[in-house]
Specification:
The chain is α/β, with parallel strands linked by helices. 27% of the residues lie in helices and 26% in strands. It has 10 helices and 15 strands. The chain has helices spanning 14-23, 44-47, 62-66, 83-95, 117-130, 147-152, 176-182, 200-216, 315-328, 331-335; strands at 3-8, 27-33, 58-59, 72-75, 99-102, 133-136, 158-169, 225-232, 237-238, 243-244, 249-260, 263-273, 290-299, 302-307, 340-342. The strands form 3 sheets. Strands 3-2-1-4-5-6-15 form a 7-stranded parallel beta sheet, with helices on both faces. Strands 8-11-12-7-13-14 form a 6-stranded mixed beta sheet. The longest helix has 17 residues, at 200-216. The chain starts with a strand and ends in a 15-residue tail after the last strand. GO terms for molecular function: kinase activity.
């Protein structure tokens, strides 16, 4: 019998999740939640751009969807600007005995050491008491910097450092709030965007550093180290969702570093441009406009670049697809997992079984 699934939101990730749920033979889409009343009553297939109806109408009625008693909610709603409200939403689902796979808040990818211990226990206990599991993942934070680097370290004889890097041109990334409010692109360099407030980088990506460290049996120094560098635009230009004026912030490179005895052992790095030619001295993908890079320094030293692009060539579109499908493809495993918060190391091997037909 197919697992009954509700998709929560139909934005840039959610529409790909709907397509993915429809493609998986062991999943049945039974409901769709939307925040925009204008989308209510529209068919899920239309909202996902599938060109055909799926026979499931979107709704803003949360209680009606919970009354369907789904086996799992695929939660892809925007959480970057409402982290703690989103946590409450997830706890509510767990309290009601519904398993959840979610793209955020990303700090729940591995919350130990990121959130206060009593808050982690509260979320975990909601799952245990409700008999439901919560898995937060995607591509970054997610597969590119949890499963991929940890599997790569299985080839190591000695590990000196693990570095996970996202290298991307965000000029086609259609998320205005993230681009302007979080990253500060198009804003004066003397303004400090939300992402660069003290502690925020470690809040957003500390889960990555801490999960890799836990997988390697490392006890990190506290606190994690944050570093960043910004560069201005050398001319006016437009991205798909915002204008960047000459002299305003146009490129950002940051690191979240876990050290042991002062030695850098686990590094999460982002290199974000808003035009391809920017910051020539910063790391670049070997080809294309973006990649996820894992570097394990030691014996042996290894580098893996995960290049990606959508069928129409855009890497930001494929990033959204990978985030959606990392969630959708884990639904069956998460439903079968132990109750509470689960992470990538708690799940069996997850594949795209059923998608190659």
């Amino acid at each position: 019998m197919a697992l009954r699934v509700v998709e929560w939101s139909t934005g840039t990730v959610g529409r790909h999740a709907i397509a993915g749920i429809d493609a998986r033979p062991e999943l049945e889409l039974v409901g769709v939640w939307v925040s925009n009343p204008d989308k209510a009553g529209r068919d899920a297939g239309e909202l996902a751009g599938l060109g055909r109806d799926l026979g499931v109408r979107a709704t803003t009625d949360r209680d009606a969807l919970l009354a369907l008693r789904p086996d799992c909610i695929v939660h892809t709603a925007m959480t970057d600007d409402r982290i703690f409200e989103a946590v409450q939403d997830l706890v509510f689902f767990l309290d009601n005995g519904i398993n959840v796979v979610s793209s955020g808040p990303v700090l729940l990818q591995y919350p130990w050491g990121v959130l206060p211990e009593d808050e982690v226990e509260r979320i975990h206990a909601a799952g245990v008491q409700g008999g439901a599991s919560l898995y937060v993942n995607g591509i970054d934070p997610g597969f590119a910097n949890d499963v991929l680097p940890l599997v790569l370290t299985s080839l190591s004889q000695r590990i000196d450092q693990v570095r996970c890097t996202e290298i991307a041109d965000y000029s086609t990334y259609d998320q205005a709030m993230t681009m302007t409010e979080l990253f500060g692109f198009g804003r004066p360099l003397d303004e400090t965007p939300f992402l660069l407030q003290p502690g925020v980088l470690a809040l957003g990506w500390g889960s990555v550093v801490r999960q890799i460290a836990a997988g390697l049996g490392l006890t990190l120094d506290e606190p994690l180290v944050e570093r960043h560098e910004r560069l201005p635009a050398d001319q006016d230009f437009d991205t798909v969702c915002c204008h960047v004026a000459e002299g305003t912030a146009a490129a950002l490179r940051f690191e979240v570093v876990g050290t042991v005895g002062g030695e850098e052992k686990v590094v999460l790095e982002h290199v974000t441009r808003t035009a391809p030619a920017q910051a020539p001295g910063w790391p670049r993908p070997a080809r294309g406009d973006g990649c996820y890079r894992v570097e394990v320094t030691g014996q042996p030293s290894m580098t893996v670049d995960l290049h990606h692009h959508g069928e129409h060539g855009d890497h930001n579109d494929s990033g959204m697809i990978m985030t959606a499908m990392r969630l959708v493809n884990t639904v069956e495993a998460v439903v079968g997992a132990k109750p509470g918060i689960v992470t990538a190391v708690d799940l069996p091997l997850v594949t795209g079984r059923g998608l190659a037909s």
